[in-house]
Each structure stands twice: as structure tokens, then as C-alpha cells.
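Q: I'm writing up a methods section and want to include an example of the input and output format. Could you take the sequence below and give the corresponding predicted C-alpha cells, formatted cleanly so I can copy it straight into the document?
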Amino acid sequence: MRLYRMALWVTVPLAAALLAAPAGATRAGTIGGTTQKPASVRQAETVAAPAADSTWLLPVLGAAPVTFLHAAHRPVIVSRAQWQADETKRDPRAHYAGGVTAIFIHHTDTPNGYECADVPRTLRNLYTGQTRDRDWGDIGYNFLVDKCGTIYEGRAGGVDRPVVGAHTVGFNRGTAGIAAIGTFGRGAPVPAAMEHAIAALAAWKLGLRGVDPRGRVRLTSTNDKSRYPKGTSADFFAISGHRDAYTTDCPGEALSAALPAIRDLAADLQGRSAGAPPDVGAPLTWESLHRHGNATG
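A: Here is the clean output for your methods example:
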């Protein structure tokens, strides 16, 4: 896995204009062994879409270089158009946070004996249930991964953008939800291809903000129905299970037990040294960039 390191340029004080990284189209994937082409036209959102989750500062005279991100390759992601999501069912508005600093892992609690070629139909059924029966406005998860290691786009709004999902009550903002398709209770095998795909996806998504997958982040609850009352802050692993934030068995005992290995693999895919301690501090922010500029200027 090739590692990219990107540098930001910071003025003293921070005064450079922002240049939004272009939002790339979802890459082509395969469904049932047949290569699918990405949709040429996507339904327009009714709210202005923000820049991609990673942003760049224009270089200016006298700026100081700052090494910012451990970035991993963006994995292949099957688009909503490819799994034939009916876009008339969802709320046309997408909601965004400032960035994604944590991942919550889920399972869909559906049967494990599926054929991977049938996953698009499973997604359409989940989509119908979560829009019609739960009134979530769209599928709740940002991404879904099947047992063959195929990654699917979940909630609409842009896979490289910080879309607010409906996956972890109290902690949907600033996080992404990845659902493993199946049920992974005690004794259920978690396919290696699924683990690797989850790790690759998390490495890329967290890398957009320079977050170490092995580290910890501090999140603030927005809902009293979570494990933490509204307004309460709590520490989480950057890759956590649903049950860490909500009273549930999700993502199941087996998948929960696999999370340490997934964190380590995701860190490796970001090019982080296996022997180095995880980054446990807060992710880099504009305020910390400003402080760095003052210190080095």
C-alpha cells in the first residue's frame, strides 16, 4: 500500500484561502462478477455540498510547512447507482459535519448465508426498512461491507465527505458508520476479506483528518438515548463498536473481538510504524494549526 504524505502551508497568522479538494466520483466496482460503470449523473442535493473531508491551504510567501496526514488509498466503493438505490425514497437533503474523526462498526443483523451477488438486493431491502419503517430519511450507515470484502456506499451525500448518518444515537455527527453485512455474535466467523475491507475503508476515511486508527478520540453526546447523557463527553477508540456508545450487542461478540486487529491493520495501511505508540491527542484542528504557525513563525 503506497503511502502519501501531504503538507499544508500555514501563514503566521493563518490567513491563507481554502481550496476545496474536488469530490471524486465513486469508483467503479463489481457486482456479481460484472464490472459496473459509475453513474454519469447523480441526483442533485437541495443543500450546498461542502468540500471533501480533506482540505488544502494555498501556499503563500513566508508560510511554514506542516506535515499533516497519514493518508491511505481510497478503496473501491460500489456506488448507490450501482446497487440501484431508489433516490426518490430518501430525504433529498444531505447533512454534513466538519470532518470525520471516529468510525463506529455495526452489523446488519441479517443472515450470513448470502451470496455476494445478492447483496445489492439486501441493501435495497435495508434501505426500504430504514426509510419507510424507521423514518431515518435514508439508509443509516455511511458504508456497508459484505463477506467478500466489497464496500458499498450507504447514506447519500458523497463518500469522501463528512456525511451525518443515522447509525449511532448521540454520536452521528463527526463520525462514520460502517456496517458489516451479516450477524456476528459469539462464535460466528468474521471473514478475513471483510475485516481487511473494513480496515482499508477506515484507514482511508480517518486518514483524511490525520486520525490514528489505534488512537482515542473525545466525542460529545447529542442525545440522552445514548450511553452518555446529552452534552456529556466520552473517550472512544477511533474505531469503536456500536455498543461502546449505545446499549446494544451490535456489532456482536465476534466482530467486537476483531476490532483490535482491524485497528492495527488500518494503522499499517496508513503507513504508521507497528512499534510506535498510537496518537492519542486530539486530531489536528485549525486552532492547532494557528498555534503551530505562531510557534514556528
